[in-house]
Each structure stands twice: as C-alpha cells, then as structure tokens.
Amino acid sequence: MNESVGIVEPKKLTLQGKLDLECGQSLTDIEIVYETYGNLNQDSSNAILICHALSGNHHAAGVYEGEKRPGWWDSLIGPGKAIDTNKFYVVCPNNIGGCHGSLGPSSINKETGDYFGPDFPIITVKDWVRSQSLLSDSLGIEKWHAVVGGSLGGMQALEWSRLFPDKIKKAGIIAAAPKLSAQNIAFNEVARQAILNDPDFAAGRYLDTGQSPKQGLKLARMVGHITYLSEEAMKSKFGRDLKEEKLNFVYDAEFEIESYLRYQGDVFSENFDANTYLLMTKLLDYFDPAVDHQGDLARAFETIEAQLLVVSFTTDWRFAPERSREIVNALIAAKKRVSYLEIDSPHGHDSFLFADEDYTKGLSSFLEN
Amino acid sequence: MNESVGIVEPKKLTLQGKLDLECGQSLTDIEIVYETYGNLNQDSSNAILICHALSGNHHAAGVYEGEKRPGWWDSLIGPGKAIDTNKFYVVCPNNIGGCHGSLGPSSINKETGDYFGPDFPIITVKDWVRSQSLLSDSLGIEKWHAVVGGSLGGMQALEWSRLFPDKIKKAGIIAAAPKLSAQNIAFNEVARQAILNDPDFAAGRYLDTGQSPKQGLKLARMVGHITYLSEEAMKSKFGRDLKEEKLNFVYDAEFEIESYLRYQGDVFSENFDANTYLLMTKLLDYFDPAVDHQGDLARAFETIEAQLLVVSFTTDWRFAPERSREIVNALIAAKKRVSYLEIDSPHGHDSFLFADEDYTKGLSSFLEN
C-alpha cells in the first residue's frame, strides 16, 4: 500500500492527423512525450488521463533511473494511492507547447529548419484537449474512465467533459476556476513582461544566441510562486525570519523568504523554457468556456455527460473556493451529476499537490465507485 | 465647503544638526522639501503632520500653478474636508531618501561631489520620524496636534506616538500593519529584483549613464499596483474586457487590465527614481516596532501617550483589517486610548485615498473633538 510506482521511463509517439488550432494555424507530425503507470485492462476501460498545470510535464509519478526526485503528483498516483495504479492505467502527457519533449517552441519547425521559438502558435485549452483526444486514439483508448487535473489541469478536465462527452466517464476538476479574474490575468501579465523585457529574451530567438532570459523567467516564477502559497503557509514557514542574526541594511536577501524565492526562481529558470512559460500563461488567460454562450456557464455545460468531482482548498487565493463553486453552481443549474469537496488545507493553491487525507479519500472514492 | 486649498508651492529648508541613522551612518545638511496648507495659530497648537507612503511625496493637496492634477490626498485635505485647513495648519514633507527634492539618492553627496545613487544609506521608519522631529524644530512646532498617514504613512504616525510621546497629541494610523508579513516582503522582493536585474540599473549608478532602469521600475510598479487594488475593484473596472473585439493570439496586451497596468507602470517609471523605490521597499520590510521587545507589541506601545485612531478597509488585502486589529488589540492591552474604524470600501489598499463618507467623518471627528 502507498508505495511508489518505482522506476519509470517516458515514451514518445507522433500523433496521426492534423490539429487545427483556435488561433487559425494548424500543426502536423505532433510528437508527444508521455508516461504511463499501471496496466490497461482488456476492455481498455480503466484508463485515467492526468492533465498537468502551468509548469508541469509528463513526469507525474515514480522516479527516473538514477534520480531521487519523484514525479510532481507522486503523492497521489501509485499502488494504493488516491489514483490507484493497482486498479487504473494512468497516462500523463507533456502538452504541446511544452518544453519537456513534446512539440513546442524549442522544437525544430520542419518548414524552416529553425527552432519555432516565438513563431510557435499560441495554444488554447481546447487545442490541448483536442491533442489529447488524438493521443487517446493513438493509445487505443475509446473512453477515459476519468480525466483528472489540478489548476490549469482541472480546466482541461472540465473542457474534456464539454468537448468529448462520449469519450469521458468522469472528470476530476481540482483547484480550478471557470475563467481567470482580472487579478489572475494581471499577475500573468507581470510574469510575461518580466520575460519579454529581459534583453536576453531576444524577441524569443534566444536559442540562437545561447543566452536564455533566465532573469526574466526567474522573476516570472517568483511572482507566480507567491500566488501558489497561502499567506498562512508563508507565515508559518518563513515569517520574518532573518538569514543572519541581524539586519545588514543592504539589498542582498535579509529575510529567509527572499532567499527562498530567489532560489526557487533560479532553479526554475534553469529548467524551464521562457517561450513555453509565455504560452502557458496565455493559455490560462484565454480559458473561458462560457464566452461562446454569452457568459452563461450553465449553457456552456449543457453537452456534459460525465460524472464530475470539483475540489477546492480553503487557503487557495489564486483560485479560491468561490471560483470552484461557480463551476459547481453552473453544473447544478445545468442538471449535471457533480460532487463538491472543499478541503481544509494550509498550502494555498499548491494544496492540490499534497496528499491530505480528506482530499485523497474523496478523490479515490470518486474514481472507484 | 469642500473646496481645494488652491494653488500651492513647495518650500525648502535645511534641517539643523546631524541625523544618526539606524544603519550606523549619519546625514547632515539635510534638505527637506515640504508643503503647508492652512495657517498656524498663535500658540502653534493646530499643526498636523501628514506622512506619505511608498511612492508618495510632499504634494498632498492643492495644485501647482498651471497644472490640473491635485496632490495625492486632496480628497481629504482642504477647507471643510476631513483634514480641515480652515482649522488646521497642515505640513507634508517629502521624506529623506525621496526623489522629489528632499535629500535622497539623486542628490549630490558633498563628500564625493557625485550623486549618492546606491551609496545613499538605507533609511528606516525610525529615521524618518527622527528627521520629521528635526523638521518640527525648524518650523517651531513643539507638539503636533496630530500625525496622520496611510499605509507606510500610518507606520510613521504609529512610530511618532512611540518615539516622541510628548510631541504628539493624536495619531491617525490608516491602512497600516504592525509589520510586513512574509507575503508582503515577498512582493517587495520581486519589485526589487525587477529593478536590480534591469541592465540599465547599472549597479545603481544610472544617473551617470543617462539611461535609467525604466523597465525594471515599471515591472516593480505593476506588481505593487496589483496589491493596491482589490480583486473586486479590478473585476468591476476591467473584468475580462478585451482591448479589441476579439482575441488576436499575440503577446501584445489583449485584455484591458494588461494595458492599464502597462500604462500605469510606464507613467510611474518616468516619474520616480529606482534607488528611492528600492529604499522605500526596504523601509517597509524593516518596520517592526515589536522587534526590540521580544515580539511583544503591547510592550512596544508602553511609551505612547497620544490618542490614536486606527482605520482599515474591508477589501484591503495588502494590509487587511486583521493587521490593523493587531495594532488595536496591542494598544488596548497596553491600556492606550484607541478608536478603531473598519470601513466598507471597494478600493482595496488604495481606499485610504478615497473620501468615503464614513471614513472622512470618522477622521474629522477624531481630529476635531
């Protein structure tokens, strides 16, 4: 019980067919990197699709040979865990536009022979879901037992239930919102400006110069990171703790929280691609299923047939519980089968990554019953 | 009633004596720019000191000859207004370290003949209050009828009541906190990193190059600006309104909120000094009256003799009402005379700039009775 899935290896395939994007462009020969955990049963009825969030990737569980750090949702995916790999066949792809092996801004554009860079088309959540539907076809999965994700991942799960009602049985929509607020967009815009204004960004062609916009990406991550943590979590973890015994009256980091944010920003800027970050913030901004229905979310949900679970966390101020309740209320108005869990957790938006007992029990019972 | 103080002109004087700073350095020949409104009465008992906040200055009320935009607190200061210039003599200085005429990083360091720039010592709220006490001496004001300020200005008013109990009759502490939280410091650190990482910052010596770090300062202001507005205010003012009729799938501003923040950031970066901005964020971070009393705020308040008014605003999430209540509760524990007003206002932290009726009535009755 509650073990890891162990050593895992990413897989790769090329999607069949052309993907017409919302922006008007299209993509072909789409390479997708993904991981799977557990075994697909004979009638292919036990497959769960995991959708990653802003800075996520396909490495959701287990560890790579020779490495120690497990996948980003290892707390929830594994034998006996909330998403039980003894029962389910779990698939997690790196979405297109990503920077961990799937087709994205760092890939070669076969038409030009150069990196896509800033020419990579801007993707939407709809585009992602359609690409994941092509992936389902490649994997021979006609109907997902469930599509589950947190944050931007939850938005994909919601969109799956709207766009492909006959290909999804259950949707787990965790720590999400039906659309970004002005404040959410504002924080994304600060992150984008930090990257766009970094001279090393070089109008997005930094792979040609070999000098990537690390300072801009670091800043973008720092501001994002603040919105992922609750004020309470920051207070209990760092408070006003000083790095040294006394103040030094300098612009170097004096408080622990400053060092922490700088360090996290540095690590992130070494491991993520700036064009992908820009792309994913836009993807969040654009998400708004009600926009084609005069803002009426219940009408946007009319096509849904899946059973849905919506989960929110008390200290999440990025996508607060009231944002999840907007989804729930619209689903109820549209007469859909929805359960709602509001979990008392101190970790802010990041709570969806922690295996709180109420949360994991609620999720596993939703998936298994 | 409720008119403007009309045309005003800034004044200038040089403080007598030496100011020993908390950082260990000292300053002499301190030039201070300030404005006054109303008339000082015969026994100099009707003087009110206004303390400005992070990006504020001495131009609190009235207009300059030939200009239209009034001072930053014109809504509250004037004949018949909350701070009634028919009754009070109102003084507002630009604090040291500022960039509007008082001694600061853009001033010439007489010892070197060059700009201070990054060599300007880091100032604290205590230093500011002590410099304002020297200003009182120069103006012949032995005891302020009141010291009033919002945000960082409120912290100065609080510190005045602690440090100079016999020189202050009343203190108005508006939209303040007894110290910054980890999250508050984190946002300041993002702002600082934006400035420090701008190549045009040139280690703070940008006045020599003639190329100021506008992009960094713009970013710093954008992230600050988000924390000044309530999520509700942003929602009602901008929501998800688009700049054009439809999405263009580009990295240019697509939503009104993006344009607004960019524009505000641009204007600010043309009119403010980066070294001053750095300095003022540190000043906020360092403020913590309880730090010399083992974190016991009530003990830090023991010296206070003034009558105090604490005001908070319901939608302020930068310094939320509970932060003001920390001050109030400690004042009560220390058996001080304190009144507390929690004002229902939609404007977030910026509420202290708006002449809400409950707020202005509460403030004027506190000052006049």
Task: Say what oligomer this is.
Answer: homodimer
Helix content percent band of chain A: 25-40%
What is the H/E string of chain A? EEEEEEEEEEHEHEHHHHHHHEHEH
Instruction: State the strand order across the main sheet of chain A.
Output: 1-4-8-5-11-12-13-14
In round numbers, the mean pLDDT of chain A is 97
Biggest interface, CB < 8 A: A-B, 53 and 53 residues
Q: What class do helices, strands and sheet pairing of chain A give?
A: alpha/beta
Shape of chain A: globular
Number of beta strands of chain A: 14
| H/I helix tally of chain A | 11
User: Main beta sheet of chain A: strand number and arrangement?
Assistant: 8 strands, mixed
Description of the structure:
Two copies of one chain form a homodimer. The first copy, chain A, is an alpha/beta fold and 369 residues long. Helices cover 34% and strands 16% of the residues of chain A. Chain A is built from eleven helices and 14 strands. The first copy, chain A, has helices at 125-139, 152-163, 182-196, 206-209, 214-228, 231-237, 256-271, 274-286, 297-300, 321-333, 357-368; strands at 11-14, 19-20, 26-27, 31-37, 47-51, 77-78, 83-84, 89-93, 108-109, 114-115, 144-150, 168-174, 307-313, 338-343. In chain A, the strands form four sheets. Chain A has an eight-stranded mixed β-sheet, sandwiched between helices. In chain A, helix 1 packs across helix 2 and helix 5 packs across helix 7. The radius of gyration of chain A is 20 Å and the shape is globular. The two termini of chain A are 19 Å apart. At the A-B interface, helix 3, helix 5, helix 6, helix 7 and helix 8 of A face helix 3, helix 5, helix 6, helix 7 and helix 8 of B.
